[in-house]
Amino acid sequence: MFRKRQHVFTSDNDGKEDKDLTIGQGIIDWNMFVKPFPRHHKGVLLAETYPKNESVDERAFLSEAHERLSDLGNQLPR
């Protein structure tokens, strides 16, 4: 499955439609997501998410999305 460098786009959802939620805001089991990754994965994890409310502080939103993606990346096998 992971023979070459992979770019993986991540987003959470509610199980009904693709809502591009930030990791942890939906129903995806992210612990199960990281299990198939090989040791020393060299690919890139990308957050495919955006604020759903125009009044959201964009810097705070991006900071939270970055933190959650970093936490997920730290769970990958080393």
What proportion strand?
5-15%
- Low-confidence residue ranges: none
Number of domains: 1
Helical fraction: 25-40%
Largest sheet entry: 2 strands, parallel
Spatial sequence of strands, sheet with the most strands: 1-2
Provide mean pLDDT, rounded.
87
Radius of gyration over alpha carbons? Answer: 13 Å
Task: Give the overall silhouette.
Answer: globular
Q: Given the structure, what is the number of helices?
A: 2
| Distance from first to last alpha carbon | 17 Å
Strand segment tally: 2
Q: What are the secondary-structure elements, in order, as H or E?
A: EHEH
What does this structure look like?
There is one protein chain. Helices cover 28% and strands 10% of the residues. It is built from 2 helices and 2 strands, in the order βαβα. A two-stranded parallel sheet has the order 1-2. The chain is globular and about 40 Å long.
